[in-house]
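Backbone shape codes:
===
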Amino acid sequence: MAAPAHQDINLKVIILDTDFYASHAINSFLAWDRRTRVTHLASSVKDMWTHLNNTPLAEQPNIVLLEADHIGGSDVLTKTIHELQKRVAQVRILCLGQEIAVNLVEAAADAGAAGYFLKQDIGLQIAWGIVYSLNHEFCITSGVAHACADRFNHRIFHAAVLPGMRKFPELTGRIGQALKLCVLDGLPAHLAADEMGISLHTIRGYIKEGYRILEAHDDLEYATDMTPQERAFMRLTAFDEDENDDSPGGKRDND
């Protein structure tokens, strides 16, 4: 099944994470990507159920990002996934973990989750991971793949491993640093210039050149009202879809 066109994706997302800072970081990453719209930040399973019970059908989530580490173990994780599947039609559940716990990965896979992502692996690419999962039965990040390499769970063994970050060889050190500070970290140009020890004029030149390089290597169509900074964020965080199948970010499915 082909994934929907880039501009046609509009996903409502609930984030359940007991870590306040992690939850808000994920929320901010998703806010940059118009394909995802966070409708609720839940700090507990109880909070999530309360929200869902009071949410109209039209606003029910398409995606639930479910922190697995502190949910209460594999049995509670399984129960929560099954209950979500019963309550919300066609919901896709993606589990997040701060550390690798193979028993939780297996529980998520067996319960029918759509993926299991290690937070430090996915990072800024969380929106791309969500969209990538739409076209795969079960997705995992490279860290999960390595940790579960000796497991023979069918869904894990045949999981699609998320590709790595796209590379832009023409982005030199200084231009790349300027883009990181202004686009990925969100610093105003004058603060980024102070950080790099250069003038405001120079950093604006770096940013302009960086935008040109990114655009030259990307043939995706974006909404016409997107700012250059929005487009740059999406391009910098995009997956490298051309990675070889046997690379760390390749697909493990042997079928």
